[in-house]
């Protein structure tokens, strides 16, 4: 019985230790798969990468997160130029109020690449809407109604799913969907079939974005020209060699989560800054190398708790064995009397 308890105590100690020290990787981009793989999570890294390149589905987001390949529903793989995982910006992200998802993307990219037009909507039939707007010719039209479920299309084009749903214990949001190219007339007509939507989900502004792919290519080229020349990624670390004279802000395409410590040119480590939610390191003077290491919050506490649980388990095992060990007097055979 005591042995069984000891085994359960050991298993519990192991589970507590794993629960406390097992933190998700701070990198969530395909450019950082090597970090997960180096930590022994190759299968997880591959699955996470496939999920990302299928789900992001927006060229601006791909550029922000240094994703140079995208897999589509028909499993076709397309490639595009992407900035390095570490880029250098002239200063902090502009402090601007949130107006639309397109403005947020431009803030992280550091360039204006969208035209966000006004639009008018009309109800054609129950659940069927038409939106009208004007976009620059040959721009790519995107629609962003995260709280609307149904489908949408450019007039005469293919339907694109809006996957938002509100069911008991299940809530999903629609991603930003690409509808197609603006016709030569510049007039954009969008058909929408609404299946589910919360009140106020169809917003009067900020849902349409017309992407200028030429401006995007120019922005990506600029980030490549000033970005890191070499990036090394480990399980929970990243280091980058910068171009001579790099100053301003080094931006790493990863979320700015608690637990990061960064250093410039091998100097003293310090907490990094945030570039609109991305990990960043201030470069007040020209810097040649930036390195960051991630220590999951609670790691030291988890190790201490795991070590304490292990000591308790060993103590229980030793105590159980000492109780079962027969004493010397019990092992001595009885003395026979003299004849």
Chart the SSEs and their pairings.
Blueprint: H1 2-21, H2 33-38, H3 42-55, H4 59-64, E1 69-71, E2 77-79, E3 86-89, H5 101-109, E4 114-115, E5 119-125, E6 128-134, E7 140-143, E8 148-154, E9 160-163, E10 165-167, E11 170-172, E12 177-181, E13 187-197, E14 208-211, H6 213-226, E15 230-233, E16 237-241, E17 248-255, E18 260-264, E19 273-275, E20 278-283, E21 289-294, H7 299-324, H8 328-331
Antiparallel strand pairs: 1-2, 3-17, 4-14, 5-6, 6-13, 7-12, 7-14, 8-9, 8-13, 10-11, 15-16, 16-21, 17-20, 18-21, 19-20
Helix pairs in contact: 1-7
Task: Write structural notes for this entry.
By secondary structure, this protein is of the alpha+beta class. The chain folds into two domains: 24-102 and 216-294, no CATH class; 114-211, Immunoglobulin-like, CATH 2.60.40. It has helices at 2-21, 33-38, 42-55, 59-64, 101-109, 213-226, 299-324, 328-331; strands at 69-71, 77-79, 86-89, 114-115, 119-125, 128-134, 140-143, 148-154, 160-163, 165-167, 170-172, 177-181, 187-197, 208-211, 230-233, 237-241, 248-255, 260-264, 273-275, 278-283, 289-294. The strands form six sheets. Strands 5-6-13-8-9 form a five-stranded antiparallel β-sheet, with no helix packed on it. Strands 3-17-20-19 form a four-stranded antiparallel β-sheet. α1 runs antiparallel to α7 (299-324). Mean pLDDT is 78; it is low at 1-55. It comes from Kribbella orskensis.
